[in-house]
Amino acid sequence: MLVGLVIGFNAPVESKGPVKLSFWIPGEGKAWEEYFRSAVKEFEASNPDIKVEMTVTPGGAQDIETKLNAAKLSGTFPDVFAAYLVFIGTRGARNEFASLESYVNKWDGKSDIFDSVSEIGKYKGKLIGMGYCPMPEMLVYRKDYFQEAGLDPSKPPTTWEELADYAVKLTKKDEKGNITRAGFDLPVTGPAFVLPEPFMRQNGSKVIDEKKQKPSFNDPAAAEAIQFLADLYAKKVSIPFDFDQKDTFPFLNGRAAMSFLMPSQITQFNVNNPTLKDKIAIAPVTKRKVKKSFVGYRLFVMGKDSKYKNEGWQLIKFLMTNEQMKKRMIDLKVPVVRKSMTQDFTNLDPANKTVLEYVEFGKGKPTIPWTSLYNKYVEQAYEEALNQKKTAQQALNDAQKALEEELKKFNLQ
């Protein structure tokens, strides 16, 4: 009699391997990229089931928009993206970023993060971005150039009038009248409107009525601010440069005495010029009617269609730890966003007290879905005023009218 024989056997189990997580960061210079590459290696070492593929994109917002559009069409949108604040409005309106609410609500670090950090990452009340890096545009100056011009380096400009006066006194020209060293970096091309916006707000302009989602940058306060910058430019105190090309700023090449720079640019300057580290200083936030500065933000966001949101949040949470924030604070001079680390930041360098003033009085780009259109028309007006093609008021009037017509045409209001 045959007895049925059952032979047991284990089918081979297919190994899936680690999750491959795509992570994009905008280019901010060598020091910035080196920090993130190091942080990614640390994360992978403690999370061997996750492999992070980091991509460094161009630094310009428009270039990144183009890259994101291409990625969306090809199905390669990043799982995690270190986004500029402007993308919270432009891409948030397209519902391209995942909600972070459920992750943040369970996060034990939530209570230690400044309330403003969470608020700045919301689009229409929905949390889609976690702010990790305030990027104030700060007025930086060369103390040695001040002394050379007979100015007290302990008394930088704090008003528009002082800024204009100092810019003239600090400018050097050759016998033919050509500028050999600028008094003040005043951009003409690129996303130059990052610089004029705080001047407009210092003078009382809303620039954009974000509650009504309407442009309001052609009021007399805004026009006076743009005219001030145009009049200053006409005094030939600046060497032309492209604001979008961060390494072309005359100040960074020793050819300007004052400039608005981000912390990452200052860090890179100190790396490139260690002997000049003690010769640069940060001026307080200038004031007209009120104190206002421009503070961009970098925020971690996740792609809405990412298959690896849990792993993406693991990466974001790692990059928001005290340890990683401390490294950014020390290596990149990035202001902290944890309440428990504020004193550490001010203890690190007395100048950081001034940095925090820029953050305190800062306002970033308006959170609107039509930022690219706003930038196009308002930068056009700025350039027309600087090149004396129109008065500032006329240029802004024409720009706002053209923007309003385009918004109606595409039903964006």
Q: What does this molecule look like?
A:
It is a single chain. The protein is an alpha+beta fold and 413 residues long. It has two domains: 187 residues, D-Maltodextrin-Binding Protein, domain 2 (3-Layer(aba) Sandwich), CATH 3.40.190.10; 198 residues, D-Maltodextrin-Binding Protein, domain 2, CATH 3.40.190. 40% of the residues lie in helices and 16% in strands. It has 16 helices and 15 strands. Strands 1, 2, 3, 6, 14 and 15 form a six-stranded mixed β-sheet that branches. Strands 12-7-13 form a three-stranded antiparallel β-sheet. A two-stranded antiparallel sheet has the order 4-5. Strand 8 and strand 9 form a beta hairpin. Helix 8 packs across helix 9 and helix 15 runs antiparallel to helix 16. It starts with 18 loop residues before the first strand and ends with a helix.
Query: What's the CATH C level of the largest domain?
Result: Alpha Beta
Give the mean pLDDT: 91
Overall tally of structural domains:
2
The radius of gyration is 24 Å
Low-confidence stretches: 1-9
Note the total helix count: 16
Q: Percent of residues in beta strands?
A: 15-25%
Instruction: State the end-to-end CA separation.
Output: 87 Å
CATH fold-level topology of the largest domain: D-Maltodextrin-Binding Protein, domain 2
Structural class: alpha+beta
Helix content: 40-55%
Shape: globular
Quickly give the CATH architecture of the largest domain.
3-Layer(aba) Sandwich
Largest sheet composition: 6 strands, mixed
Number of strands: 15
Oligomer: single chain
